[in-house]
Amino acid sequence: HRDFPPLPSSLRPMSAVRTLKGALAPARNALPRAVATSGARYAGRWTTEKVPMGPADPILGLNDAYNKDTFEKKMNLGVGAYRDDNGKPYLLPSVKEAEKRIVESGWNGVQQKEYAGITGIKEFCDASVKFAYGADSPALKENRLISAQVLSGTGGGRIAFEFYARFLGKGVPVYMPDPTWANHLPMAKDAGLSLQTYRYYDKNTYGLDFTGMCEDIKAAKDGSIFMLHACAHNPTGVDPTIEQWKEISALLKKKNHIVFLDMAYQGFASGDADKDAAALRMLVADGHDVMLAQSFAKNFGLYGERVGCLSMVGSTTEEAQRLLSQLKILIRPMYSNPPIHGARIVATVLDDPVLNKQWYAECKGMADRIIEMRTALKDGLAKEGSTRNWDHVVDQIGMFCFSGMTPEQVEKLKTEYHIYMTKNGRISMAGITTKNVGYLAHAMHAVTK
Questions:
Q1: 285-310 mean pLDDT
Q2: In terms of DSSP bridges, do strands 207-208 and 194-199 run parallel, antiparallel, or are they unpaired?
C-alpha cells in the first residue's frame, strides 16, 4: 500500500470500474479478449515503412572492421584523433595539470558542479575569442563580438545553421566547399537550409581550384551564406595562401556574402596558433561580420569533453547584443546549457601564462610530428620506386592527407594489406608512426603503380 491521493475518475484505469458498493467489476471497454487471455501484442507502431533502418556511419564501420582484424601490421588511418609515435592517445601535460588544479582547488577556489548559464563558462568564452581573433582585435575592443560555449564544432555549426534558417529563411542556400567534412552536410540540411557547393579541390593537381572557387563566389546570388574552413581543410588538407585569402575576402565582400567559418585545428595545423588564425583575422579586419565555430577537440586533445565556442561579430555593440539574445533563445530548448569540465580546462590553460606557453609547445610538438610523417611517407614512396608525384603529401597541412587514391585502390589496401581509411582516399596522418610508415609506403606503392 502506498499512501497516495486517489486518482480523479478521468485518470483511473479503464480495465475496471468501481461499483456503487465499492467492489471492482470488469469494465465495458476492457482490452480485447485476445490480449487479455493469450498475451498477443498489437502491431508495432514504428513499422519499417515509417522508420526505415538508417545507414551505418562509414567511420564507425571502418573502426569495427579494424578492431576485428587480427593482422599484426594492421593500420587504422580513418579516425580523426591524434596519436603519438607509439600509436597511443596523447593527453597533453598542460591539460593534465589544468585538470589537476581544478579537481584539487575547485573552479575559482570553489568546489561545485552548478549549472553554467545558457552561454556557458564566461572565462572560457572570453579566452576563446581572444585566442581566435587576437587580443588586439578591434571587434573585441569595441564590444562588437559575442560568444557562447557550445558542444564542440558540430554543436556550433548546427546552432549557426539554425540561426541562418530562422533569420534568413528556410531553404536559403549555404555554399560549402567540394568536398567538405561529411557532417557539415546533414547539419545544414537538418536546419532546413539548401545545400550548394563551390569548387575547391582540384583532382588533377591535388591542390586548390582557386579559379573555380572565385568563379563560384562571383556566380552565387548576392548575400548567400559561404562556409569556409579557417585552416587545415578537412578532408583535403589544402588551404588557400594568405594572398589568395585576400582575393577571396574581396570577392565575398563585393557580393555581400555571409561568412561562416569552421575552425577545428587552430595551432594544430602549422604549430603556430596565430598563423592558423590569419584568415579569420584578415576577414574581420576587412569588415566581414563573420560567425565562427571553434572546436578544442584536436588542439587540446579534449575529444570527449565536447568543448566549443560559437561567436559572431556585429556591426555595433547594440547589434551584437541582439545577436547574443537570439543565440540564447536557440540554445535554451536545444540543450539548455553546456557541460562545464572541459571548458574550465581550456580556460585554465589559456589564462595561465605558464600553462599557456607550455600548451603552445605541446601543440607545436603534435603538429611537427604530423609534418615529419608527411615527409617520411613521401620519402618512403620514393624509396619504394614510385614514379608518381607525391608532392601533395607534404604540401597539404593538418591532420589529413587527401592521397588521390581511388576507392578501388583503398579497397585493395584494406583487403590485401589490412590498412583502413575512408573510400575517398583520406589518410589520417596521426595514425602513421616511425614504425609503420615504411609498411604504408610499400602498400601504397603496390596499389598505385
A1: 97
A2: unpaired
- The reported pTM is 0.86
The number of residues in the chain equals 449
Q: Is the pLDDT of residue 15 over 60?
A: no
Rounded distance between C-alpha atoms, residue 150 and residue 339, angstroms? 9
Q: So what's the pLDDT on residue 38?
A: 55
Residue 424: exposure state from Cβ atoms within 10 A (0-12, 13-18, ≥19) = middle
What is the average per-residue pLDDT within 114-128? 96
Q: Output the CA angle 141-142-145, nearest 5 degrees.
A: 85
Measured distance between the N- and C-terminal CA atoms of the chain, rounded to whole angstroms: 79
- Opening angle at CA 163, ends 157 and 169, nearest 5: 125
Beta bridge partners of residue 260, listed in sequence order: 227, 291
Helix runs in 268-401, H state only = 273-276, 278-285, 297-300, 317-335, 341-351, 353-384, 391-395
Angstrom distance (rounded) from CA 413 to CA 356:
41
Alpha-carbon gap, residue 410 to 427, rounded angstroms: 10
Identity of the amino acid at 272? D
* Chain segment 61-74, per-residue pLDDT in tens: 888 899 999 999 99
Which residues lie closer than 8 Å to 349 by C-beta, 6 or more apart?
A: 94, 95, 98, 300, 355, 356, 359
Would you please indicate which residues are annotated as catalytic (active-site) residues? 181, 262, 298
Residue 21 has pLDDT above 50, yes or no: no
Distance in angstroms (rounded) separating the CA atoms of residues 404 and 238: 13
Give the model's pLDDT for residue 379: 97
> Which triple of cell numbers denotes residue 448?
598505385
Is residue 36 predicted with pLDDT exceeding 90? Answer: no
Q: Residue 237 in contact with residue 397, Cβ under 8 Å?
A: yes
CA angle (128 as vertex; 328, 192 as ends), nearest 5:
40
